[in-house]
Amino acid sequence: MTKVKYLILGAGPTGLAIAHTLAALGEESFLVLEKEETAGGLCRSLEVDGHPLDIGGGHFLDVKRREVLDFLFGFLPESEWREYHRISRIKIRGNELDYPLEANLWQMPVDDQLDFLESIAQAGCVSDSPMPEAFDEWIVWKLGERIAQEYMLPYNRKIWSTNLSELGTYWLYKLPDVSFRQTLQSCLEAKASGTLPAHATFLYPKNHGYGEVWKRMGDALGDRLRTRTPVTSIDISKRIVNEEFQGETIITTIPWPLWTAVSDLPPVVAGRISSLRNASIDIDYHPETAPTDVHWLYEPDEDLSYHRILYRSNFCAGSRGYWTETNSHRATTHGKWNYRNDYAYPVNTIGKPDAVAEILSWAEKHRIVGAGRWGTWEHMNSDIAVAHGMATARKLLGK
Length: 399
Description:
- The chain is α/β, with parallel strands linked by helices.
- The chain has helices at residues 13-24, 66-73, 110-121, 135-143, 145-160, 180-189, 211-220, 257-262, 267-274, 352-365, 372-375, 382-397, and strands at 2-9, 30-33, 45-48, 51-54, 61-62, 81-85, 88-92, 95-98, 201-205, 225-226, 234-235, 240-241, 245-252, 277-286, 296-298, 308-310, 322-327, 337-347, 368-370.
- The protein contains twelve helices and 19 strands.
- The longest helix has 16 residues, at 145-160.
- Pfam families: NAD_binding_8.
- It comes from Geomonas terrae.
C-alpha cells in the first residue's frame, strides 16, 4: 500500500496545479493518479497531420491572471509563447461578425442593424420587466427576440443538445454584458463598445500545441505522477484507491459520475451525482486551410452539426487545416481524424448548484475535496482551473 497525505485523482490543469503548489509550499507527501499516458486532461495535444492538435477543443491561455502566468512560465518559459489578439466571429445572415454580437452589429448592413436594434429595444431588460428564471426565456429578456432566435438559442441548443428550459441563469454572468445604449452607440460610431470577452488577448505556444505546458508539468512531477492508472475502485471509509493507494485526504478532479461506478456511495449522494449533466464533444480535423484570419468561428445554423470551427493554422505556427467541435449527440460524419471527449462541458441545469453543494458537503465529511472543472462541476477556462488548484493547495496547507 502506497500511503500519502494527499492523493490527487486526475492530472489535468487543476490536479497539476495542486501538486506543484503543494511541492512549492514544502509538502512532499502526495501522489497524482492519471488514466491517460500523458498529463493535461482536456488540454492535451496530439500530433495530427504533422502538427499539434488540441484534442479537448479550443484552449488558450488568458493573460489576465499574472500569478497564473508566472506559475506556468516556470514550466514553459514566457519566451516560448506567442501573444495573439483574439479574432473570433459569429456566422449570421451570411455575414461573419466579430464576437460579441451585440457589440458588433454595426458590421451588418444597415437594414439588418435596424432589425436587431428594434428587437433589443423591446427586450424585457430594457423595459424593466421581471427577469425570468429559465435560460431560454432569460435570453429573450436580455437580448431581444432576434438575437435570441437567430443566434443564442440555436447555438446553445447545438452545444448542449438539451431542452434549454432545463438550464438555469445563475451562470450567465460569464456572458459579455453589452447594454442597449452601448449597442446603439456602437452602430452609430461603427466600432465595438461594451465589455471585452475572455481571451481578448491570449497566449499560445510558439512551437507546440497547448498541451505542451501540461505535459512538462506532468514530467516535472517524476514518480509522484502515475499515468496509465485509471481509478477502478475507491474505499471511501479508508480513502483507498485501486486497493493500492491510500490518502489521508483525497482530492478529486475527475468527474463525479465516475465515482458511482467504483465506490459504494450513499443513495442520496449517488442520486445527486446522477442528476449532474455533461456535454460530450467530438473534435474533427480537416486538412484544408481556409483563407481567413479568424482564430475561431461560432456557427449557430442548426442545419450544420458543429457549433464551432477552430482555424489551427492561424494560431499554431506552421500548421494547416482546421477542426470542428460538435456535440456528440449531433455528430453525423467525421473529419479525417476524430476524437471524442466524453466529459467536455458541465451542463448548468437549474438544480446543479444544490446538487453540487450537497455532494461537496458529504465529501468534506469524508476528507474528500472536489476541485477544478469536474470536482466542482463548474466550467473553468484553464487559467481559472490553475488558479483554483493553487488556491485549493494553499487551503489544504493552511497557507
